[in-house]
Design brief:
Length: 894
Amino acid sequence: MKVVVVESPAKAKTINKYLGRDYEVIASFGHIRDLPPKDGSVDPEQDFHMVWELADRGASRVSEIAKAVKGADKLILATDPDREGEAISWHVLEALTARKALKGIPVERVTFNAITKASVEQAMRKPREIDQALVDAYLARRALDYLVGFNLSPVLWRKLPGARSAGRVQSVALRLVVEREMEIERFKPREYWTLIATLTTADGATFEARLVGADGKRIQRLDVGTGEEAAAFKRDLELATFQVASVEAKPAKRHPQPPFTTSTLQQEASRKLGMAPAQTMRVAQRLYEGVDIGGETVGIITYMRTDGVDMAPEAIQDARRVIGKEFGDRYVPDVPRKYSVKAKNAQEAHEAVRPTDMGRLPKAVARHLEPEQARLYELIWTRTMASQMESAELERTTVDVTAQVGPRRIDLRATGQVVKFDGFLALYQEGKDDEEDEESRRLPPMKAGDPLDRERISSTQHFTEPPPRYSEASLVKRMEELGIGRPSTYAAVLQTLRDREYVKIEKKRLQPEDKGRLVTGFLESFFRRYVEYDFTAGLEEQLDRVSNAEIDWRAVLRDFWRDFSAAIGETKELRVTDVLEALNGLLGPHIFPDKGDGSNPRTCPTCGSGQLSLKLGKFGAFIGCSNYPECKYTRQLSASGVDGEGEGSSAEGGQPGVRVLGDDPATGLPVTLRDGRFGPFLQLGEASAEKGAEKPKRSSLPKGLSPSDVDLNKALALLALPREVARHPETGEPILANLGRFGPYVQHGKTYANLGKDDDVLEIGANRAIDLIVAKEQGGGRGRPAADPGRPLGKDEASGRDLVVKAGKYGPYVTDGEVNATLPKTMSAEALTLEEAVALVNAKRAAGGGKPAKRGAVRKSSARASSGDKPAAKKTATKKPAAKKAAAKTSGAG
């Protein structure tokens, strides 16, 4: 028996079918070891010695693998073919060696770019040893991320309250978003005018020509800058006679783009499918690991973490065959296309992302896939096919027109483009960020010397626009151009920025939150080198040299730590006043915008003599007056309401972290949005210091609702909860919607049902509320709220137990009624299979954990959140983790 170790149960299931009875394929569930979140896990004093720790799940996985290899003929490590996959294999080997579980059993490493029977069998015939250079590159990257996050994040917490974390790549990506926003704010629009003449040929055909010159001088887009100039040109053109000066038609070709890399796949899926990078990678993982196609489980795309754009010769020939069959021989180029990567620091060790079988057409497999899987597969298939198709043949025509008015000559130009042969455009056209394709239009036949009639002259006013905010796709593209991070980390970096509330997405664009601006300003002031684009890209180059066995990984760490530790040490003497002075200077244009009337934007609107300045409080930064405590004016950091009268301002008696939304029309009490220990919350009125006084009414914000999106009306609606949604069809008693400790819910008597992620507590209707309550009641008894029935997966043949996947307080979990096992973050509850669930439960049972509480026992479990138990009336304070422990947890995403 040969034991094969892969990462995931889905991959194990697929490969096990290919290899047969002589092999046992086991999943490690990703990494089995990690750096413990404590001081000393990476020790610079001991030449960066790293301490690894088996997680609970990791320990059970090692035990299962050790049990399987006992008496086995061979151990084959078949994790993914990249640096991370190499590291997982290394960790497994190290852990088994530490347990002395191998005892002379030979160990081999195999990799395959696609999970197909041919690829797997071929890989098994070509084993190798673990690539230590790839492992060293992983160790260096992991140590760097740990050292930056573990040492820099606590500095942020001490010197900049409200900041959550900093990261080696994360902070540089944030700087890109912040700098683009500052560029937008500094932008001054410029007026310009365009003049278009609609002209008619002798045959009665019309076309448009635009002004390009006058009096022998060229006129560019911004040269006509006032209405007066435009009116003068329009007046002359309305008196002019028109004639064709020249006609030039040139053939042109448009070539297809290469097949997808990780980065370009994320960009195009964002543009065309509206999928976030993290979602794209999650769906692509499923397509790679294997899906059921007509009773056969097979990986239908190649490995999705790659910088390469080339394809295997047999894949190219397969693509050319399908193109000829589906589109005709005219669409097949004479010579196969070869591509090379232009991105900085690209590693071309693997093929591009492509279908494993080009003949597997999207329309044929769509019925076997989930909708988002089908859409992503179609995108990959069409891009791959198009990359090997013939170029499109175009004809671009330019017509120059002269307008003569007296002695003055004015020049106009018309352009057109005609597709003579569509080529790859018959199948695919790449999306664009922030650009509009020129309209392809055909110009009517004409020749030099032909007279033209004027139909109308139009002049249009325009203003230049600022550069657009980054979309997730355009930010990924920019990071790749600069060589920042690696494609496999982009999705995690973007998600971390959103989770830390450093950026938000508005209309599919990334906009920095004030918290993100502060972090960027702090790092640029005191750690500027470590958020420089060139420095970060240079570090990536060094890590790539490590993976190529060109330099020692510890040497990279020594060079980095020498200067970084010195920079950290300098902040020990840093005073809060130094931080505030630096941030006031950097963020001044944002937090103290010019009022346009010549007055000092930093003059206090309340006392008139104090100067407004950035202050740091318990809950973060705010704006306060220099005359404090005599003047108590404060407002939130956001520049809105800077005049002291608009939204966000607070006058005498104001508080940091408090935004006044307005007054409640019913009571006349102020409605405020406040920063609290457990997050933002709404409050009606002010708290009284008198003993026994009634506390003001408060409401938390529903998950997903940004504080910046809360206005007075929405605040009043939340403060008015609970609200009656419907009457129960049997009892006639009210069904109420409300917010609780575990989120929004509906209630009927003693029955509570949590709302779904797509439900809005303020908008949920009667039918939906009744459905939730009735479903909950049908599963309950004795007046208790019903347990979440979950999604049945099937019966475990070995134990005879039925397995169900449910939503819990701490995330989705699977249970067989005896053991509960939490799903790893890499697995989706919606896509979980019976085989994966059995593996999770068995692993949990082997580790001796996951058993539900006995009857009568008092136990907090994830089932409580899913069952709809009555939310707790009071929040209990949770013990905060030690600063450095939390810092270590934030360092993993760059």
